[in-house]
Structures are given as structure tokens and as C-alpha cells.
């Protein structure tokens, strides 16, 4: 059902935009329409699906690693670190290929997330809400550093484009990096049991014969790379990794082997809807998807926080 | 056999385990007793490689727990800590099924599922199997964790105060179950108990700790004596024999 709904939306997405592309024009062998479809609409729709699924799954992994429901790459310093990484590459080696930018951003994201998890070890009272606050503060500090240098180097404009998720610039040849996130999502699914175990803590993980450190490292690498790829190609999509896994967790629990497919499909669907809304609401102009997800996501996040926070307290 | 040699562990200046030597032969139920803070949990955690010793070693059937591969050990020894908080939302059956992980690596076979169902039945959890752990009472949750550990189907089972939060009926059922695991399945059960009368009733062997040292060790008859208990608990207890069982009562 849900998969079918997302499928229908994906098809709709192919036919929404400034230039007219409809099944009819395609059947009429309108070369222009076909070109728009292949160069812009199809890549855009694929990008939305890939980024949405991967970011939602990354959020779920993050929640397992930090053992806290309210963290995700954009509330744990991961995304901010990735952005800082892009800034550094852009300054030091402006002509670097996208792949290099992505790798540098991944490395920064990895370091930032590892720092976050280390900081958590020093937080004496690991209350449910303190953990995301630590992440938000860390993200704030890293973000401030990034903004400072971007300002000094006159790169604020570029910075804004990295920090606001937007699929309008996605064209054939500019999104293919996102397929990496599909591979990472598949790896995450194959290792789903390990992440569920990690979510049960180091003692239970050790008792069941797994190296906690190895699982943590694998998770960190997946989360960091997914975040970096998404930020490099389309920009930050906030709250996605929080809202979708939490909704699924409320319905189906946290056994990742069971929930990961749902999280992926719903993540893709959620971003798709937000992207469609962004395209339609001010037609023929567009509202960036990061803004739409931000508005809808933060509202949902607040609702979840109030509901789950009260139960966990 | 579990062999502890020269086990030492400190937290800062506080020496929590002080050169502990212990040999637990295969089979039977061993109770670990002692006052709060005596080091029972620390010793159990070190025996099950959840904590690392500062000095000394623990071997299980000759395998050094600090160097043996985690998955090899997990098929031989299962353990449960005193406090278990889960933030992940799992059903009872999910949790118990994870007990098979060392054997199944996540691909549960029919045989694994038989183990799961049996553990659920043994711990009286069949009606709760599909409930989420965060929607259970403390005692029900405790039973679910023990079911997971038993489902691991290991030769050695180390449990830290498994009777926590259990009502009388389930506490008795739990002790009988551990007894059965030892008698029928040949498991070696090591269990931290805070009630010495329970220890005396169900254990074959009692190890008493105080201030990070094993102060007494022996059969329930040997340990259930006023002068021994005074040394362990700093308390005058009178030992009576009621219906053939040794019962220690504190002097009112
Ligand atoms: N993580 C820790 N940090 C500092 N001290 C600890 C820690 N864990 C235990 N201790 C101390 O070690 C001593 C033994 O603890 P424990 O083994 O839990 O005792 P028991 O289980 O016998 O009640 C206690 O004094 C306790 O305060
Ligand atoms: Mg204890």
C-alpha cells in the first residue's frame, strides 16, 4: 500500500514542473518533453527518493548508536561538520571533483559525529533531552565556525546553497553520487540486527558475542557518508531522520530488520511529498525542499517530543 | 570450569576486587553473596568480560575471556547484568530471539525458534511475547531478559540478582528453573543473590565476598553459620533448621 502510494507520487513527480510534460506529450513523441523528462524530472525524482530513504535510515542508525530517540545527523553535529568539510575543500581546492568534495565532507562528518559520541560519554546525566541538546550545541558551534569563515571568504551564498536542501538544481550528471547512498542503505539493512543490538547497549552486545566498537564504527561510517553525499548533492534536509524513524518506531518498534524497509519507504515518500508541495505551492517558483521539510518536520518533531518525552520522563 | 586468578580491579583509589582467586567446577549452582558494594557485580562482570580486570585473569574452560573471540565465548557463556535499561523498543519475542544471535547470526532457523518458544514458556512469558518491553512491569521485563540469556543455550550462565523486581511466585519459579538448568541440562549457573536463605536453599556452592575479597566459600552448611555470616555481613544472624532447610534469621 505505502509502496504503491510512493510509486504513484513518484510518477506524479515526473509530470510536475514549469515546462509541460504529460503522458500525452510523451506519446505525441514531443522531443522537448522527453528531454525534460530524462534530463531533469527523472533525475530529480530519483534524487528525492534516494536522499529521502537514505537520510531516514541514517537517522534511525544514529538513534541506535546514541541510544536516544531525538538525535539524527542534523542534531548531532554530523551535517554541520560535512558542510564545514565542503567549505574547506571549496577554499583549498576550488576545482575539486564532486567525489573528492564528498570524501572530504564524509571525513569531517565522521570526525564530528565521533566527537559527539565522545562528548556524550562525559555527560553525567544522560537524560533523554540532554543528548540532543548536546548535539545541537555542538552543531551550533561547528556551524558558527563555518559561517565565520564563509563570511570572511565571501562564500555565504554558497554556504546557503549547501545548508538548504533543494532538488531544483538536480539534473542528469549532477545527482549520480546519490546512488552511493543506496549502496549504504543496503549495507545498513544487511547489518540491521547489529544496529538493533547496538541500540541495546554495549553489555548486551558483548554478551551476544559482537564487538560493540566494530558496530559503532560501521554505523558512524554509514551515517557520515550518507550525510556527506546528500549535503554535497542536494543540501541539508533537516528533521527527516528524526521524524520518520520515530513514527515508525511508535507503530512497529525498533527491531531494525523489520522497520528499516518502512523507514526507507516512508522517508522517500515524505521528501517526495515535501518536494512536490514546494514545487506547487508558489508555481511557477519553487520553495526549496529543505524549507518545506524543515517546517513540516519541526512541527512533527515537536509533537513527538511532547508525546514521547512525557512518556520517557 | 571457571578459574579466576589474581583478579584485581580499582576505580580510582577504591580497590573493588583485591586479588581474587576462585575455581568454580563445571555444573551446579553457585551463589555469590555479600553486602552491597562487596564487589559481587564487579566480579561477575569481569568473569563475563563485560569489564576488564586491572590485573589477573579469568578463564572459562581454559579460554581466557579477555582474548577469546567474542562470538566463540558467546556460545559458551551468557550473562545478565543487574540493571538493564533498553531505550530501543523491542517486543519480548524480539529480545528473546536475539538470545539466539550467537548461533543464528540473525538467520533464525526452526531449531532457534524452538529454543525461543521454550524460553518464553519457561519464564511464563507466552502471553506477553508480542508486547513491547517498555510496556511491561519491572518484573516482567526482568523475566524477559533472563529468557533471552537462557535462550542463548550456553554451558555457563552468569546472572546478577535475577530475582530483582520479581514477586514471590516468579522468584521461586526462577530459582527452580536455574536448578533445572543445572540438573537437567548440565549448565553451570553462577548467580548473585542478596537473600542468603534463597542461596542456602537452591545453591550447591556459596561464595561470600566482602570488600573485594572472597572471605568464605563452601557448601550452604559450611557458610550458614553464625560466625561465618557475622564475618560476611557484620550482623548477628541465628541459623535454624526448618523442614530440613537452613534459615538465617536476624536477631530482633
Ligand atoms: N563504575 C564505577 N565507578 C566507581 N565505582 C564503582 C563503579 N562500579 C562499582 N563501583 C564501586 O565498586 C564497589 C563494588 O560494587 P559492586 O561490584 O557493584 O558491588 P555489589 O554488586 O557487591 O553490591 C562499590 O563500592 C561501588 O561503589
Ligand atoms: Mg551488585
Short structural description:
With 313 residues, chain A is mostly helical. Helix content of chain A is 75%, strand content 0%.
What is the number of independent domains of chain A? 1
Low-confidence runs of chain B:
none
Structural class of chain A: mainly alpha
Quaternary: heterodimer
Summarize model confidence as the mean pLDDT of chain A. Answer: 88
Helix content of chain A: over 70%
What's the number of helices of chain B? 10
- Largest protein interface, residues of each chain: A-B, 24 and 31 residues
Largest sheet of chain A: none
- Radius of gyration of chain B, Cα only, in angstroms? 18 Å
Mean pLDDT of chain B: 94
N-C termini distance of chain B: 41 Å
CATH superfamily of chain A: ABC transporter involved in vitamin B12 uptake, BtuC
CATH architecture of chain A: Orthogonal Bundle
Tell me, briefly, the overall form of chain A.
Answer: globular
Secondary structure: elements and pairs:
The complex is a heterodimer of chains A (313) and B (252).
Chain A: H1 2-14, H2 23-27, H3 31-66, H4 78-92, H5 98-122, H6 130-152, H7 156-163, H8 179-190, H9 192-198, H10 202-207, H11 212-233, H12 240-252, H13 256-280, H14 289-312
Chain B: E1 2-11, E2 14-24, E3 28-34, H1 40-47, E4 55-60, E5 63-64, H2 70-74, E6 77-80, H3 92-98, H4 101-104, H5 110-122, H6 138-151, E7 156-160, H7 168-185, E8 188-192, H8 196-202, E9 205-210, E10 213-218, H9 220-223, H10 226-233, E11 237-242, E12 245-250
Parallel strand pairs in B: 3-8, 3-9, 6-7, 7-8
Antiparallel strand pairs in B: 1-2, 1-4, 4-5, 9-10, 11-12
The structure holds adenosine-5'-diphosphate and magnesium ion (MG).
Residues 40-41, 82, 160 of chain B line the site of magnesium ion (MG).
Amino acid at each position: 500500500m505505502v509502496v504503491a502510494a510512493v510509486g504513484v507520487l513518484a510518477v506524479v513527480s515526473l509530470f510536475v514542473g514549469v515546462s509541460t510534460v504529460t503522458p500525452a506529450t510523451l506519446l505525441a513523441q514531443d522531443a522537448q518533453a522527453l528531454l525534460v523528462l530524462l534530463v531533469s524530472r527523472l533525475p530529480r525524482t530519483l534524487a528525492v527518493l534516494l536522499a529521502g530513504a537514505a537520510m531516514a535510515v541514517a537517522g534511525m542508525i544514529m538513534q541506535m548508536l546514541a541510544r536516544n530517540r531525538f538525535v539524527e545527523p542534523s542534531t548531532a553535529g554530523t551535517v554541520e561538520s560535512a558542510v564545514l568539510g565542503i567549505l574547506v575543500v571549496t577554499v583549498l581546492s576550488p576545482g575539486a571533483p564532486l567525489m573528492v568534495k564528498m570524501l572530504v565532507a564524509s571525513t569531517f562528518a565522521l570526525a564530528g559525529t565521533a566527537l559527539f559520541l565522545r562528548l556524550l560519554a562525559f555527560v553525567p546525566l544522560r537524560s533523554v533531552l540532554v543528548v540532543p541538546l548536546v548535539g545541537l550545541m555542538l552543531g551550533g558551534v561547528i556551524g558558527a565556525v563555518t559561517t565565520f569563515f564563509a563570511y570572511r571568504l565571501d562564500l555565504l551564498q554558497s554556504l546557503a546553497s549547501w545548508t538548504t536542501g533543494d532538488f531544483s538544481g538536480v539534473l542528469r550528471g549532477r545527482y549520480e553520487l546519490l546512488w552511493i547512498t543506496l549502496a549504504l542503505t543496503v549495507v545498513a539493512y544487511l547489518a540491521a540486527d547489529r544496529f538493533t543490538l547496538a541500540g541495546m547497549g554495549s553489555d548486551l552486545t558483548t554478551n551476544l558475542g559482537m564487538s560493540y566498537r566494530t558496530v559503532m564504527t560501521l554505523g558512524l561510517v554509514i551515517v557520515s557518508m550518507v550525510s556527506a553525499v546528500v549535503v554535497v548533492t542536494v543540501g541539508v534536509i533537516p528533521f527527516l531522520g528524526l521524524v520518520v524513524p520515530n513514527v515508525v518506531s511508535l507503530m512497529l518498534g525498533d527491531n531494525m530488520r523489520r522497520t528499516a524497509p518502512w523507514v526507507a519507504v516512508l522517508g522517500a515518500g515524505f521528501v517526495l511529498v515535501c518536494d512536490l508541495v514546494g514545487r506547487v505551492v508558489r508555481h511557477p517558483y519553487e520553495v526549496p525542499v529543505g524549507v518545506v521539510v524543515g517546517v513540516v518536520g519541526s512541527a512533527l518533531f515537536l509533537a513527538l517530543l511532547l508525546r514521547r518525552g512525557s512518556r520517557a520522563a | 570450569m571457571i578459574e579466576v586468578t589474581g583478579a584485581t580491579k580499582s576505580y580510582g583509589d577504591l580497590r573493588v576486587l583485591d586479588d581474587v582467586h576462585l575455581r568454580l567446577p563445571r555444573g551446579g549452582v553457585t551463589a555469590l553473596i555479600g553486602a552491597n558494594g562487596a564487589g559481587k557485580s564487579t566480579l561477575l562482570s569481569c568473569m563475563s568480560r563485560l569489564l576488564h580486570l586491572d590485573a589477573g585473569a579469568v578463564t572459562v574452560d581454559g579460554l581466557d575471556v579477555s582474548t577469546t573471540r567474542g562470538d566463540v565465548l558467546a556460545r559458551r557463556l551468557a550473562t545478565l547484568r543487574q540493571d538493564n535499561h533498553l531505550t530501543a523498543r523491542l517486543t519480548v519475542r524480539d529480545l528473546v530471539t536475539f538470545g539466539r544471535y550467537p548461533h543464528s547470526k540473525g538467520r533464525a532457523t526452526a531449531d532457534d525458534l524452538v529454543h525461543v518458544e521454550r524460553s518464553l514458556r519457561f519464564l511464563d512469558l507466552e502471553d506477553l511475547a508480542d508486547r513491547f518491553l517498555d510496556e511491561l512491569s519491572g518484573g516482567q521485563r526482568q523475566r524477559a531478559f533472563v529468557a533471552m540469556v537462557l535462550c542463548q543455550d550456553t554451558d555457563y550462565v552468569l546472572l546478577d540478582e535475577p530475582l530483582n523486581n520479581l514477586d514471590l511466585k516468579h522468584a521461586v519459579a526462577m530459582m527452580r528453573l536455574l536448578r533445572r538448568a543445572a540438573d537437567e541440562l548440565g549448565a553451570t549457573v553462577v548467580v548473585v543473590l542478596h537473600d542468603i536463605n534463597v542461596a542456602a536453599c537452591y545453591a550447591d556452592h556459596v561464595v561470600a565476598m566482602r570488600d573485594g575479597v572472597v572471605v568464605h566459600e563452601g557448601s550452604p552448611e559450611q557458610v550458614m553459620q553464625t560466625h561465618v555470616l557475622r564475618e560476611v555481613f557484620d550482623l548477628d544472624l541465628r541459623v535454624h533448621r526448618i523442614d530440613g532447610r537452613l534459615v538465617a534469621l536476624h536477631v530482633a
